[in-house]
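COMPLEX REQUEST
Ligand: calcium ion
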Amino acid sequence: MSSTVDTQVYVVEDEGDLLDLICRTFAQYDIGCQGFRLGKEACAAIKRQRPRICVVDLMLPDMDGMELVKDLAGHADTGVIVITGRAELSDRVLALEVGADDYIVKPFEPRELVARVRSLLRRIDQLTTAQQDLGNKLACFAGRVFDGNSLALRRPDDTVEMLSASEALLLSCFLRSPKRILSRDQLLDGDSVDCQSLDRSIDIRISRIRRKIEADPKDPQIIKTVYGAGYLFAAEVDWLEPVTH
Ligand code: CA
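STATUS: Structure written out below.
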């Protein structure tokens, strides 16, 4: 399929006509794109070089797209958008829960996918800026340590959880403004594409972060819900310089 020098996006979609249309549309908008009709081909390409964003159809002939999403979610600097033809909302929610950043439902306008990709690229850029803001410092809160460079979160029992780009961006919003109520709008940071689905994905991202940072995610003590207002980061945050060798 088509490939440019600066490939930013991989698209994994077994319907050839749709894949061609998506790749042509990305080219029109100057987004470097490489298409794959098989999950295994995409996996091999991802091993060679990770794209900035991977668009994954959940229904692939050779593997479950969800497995690919799970693998990619371990890489914080790669965004994931899921294509689903399945009617059930549960697949989309599951995809977001295992680490996808956004989803799009068939049938869709390729231009809408372009808008989603651009929005996610902006979010990943924001993360880079947020990481630069965090500098080389470590954020310590409630016995946990978050490293904004590696996106690793060390828990009191010394286990380490990796955060996705979206999760880290959201957590860094809280770390910069502890003990303040942040509304969903503030957490969305002015991102206006399909507010409703992003609103929903904020709540899902928060529950994902809670599973990684809270002792009991069902009774959150660090990120508290303030009904009707938003969320509150209830822990003190201390910033430490990392130990250099
Ligand atoms: Ca398919």
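REMARKS: Residues 110-134 form the longest helix (25 residues). Residues 14-15, 57, 59-60 surround calcium ion (CB under 6 Å).
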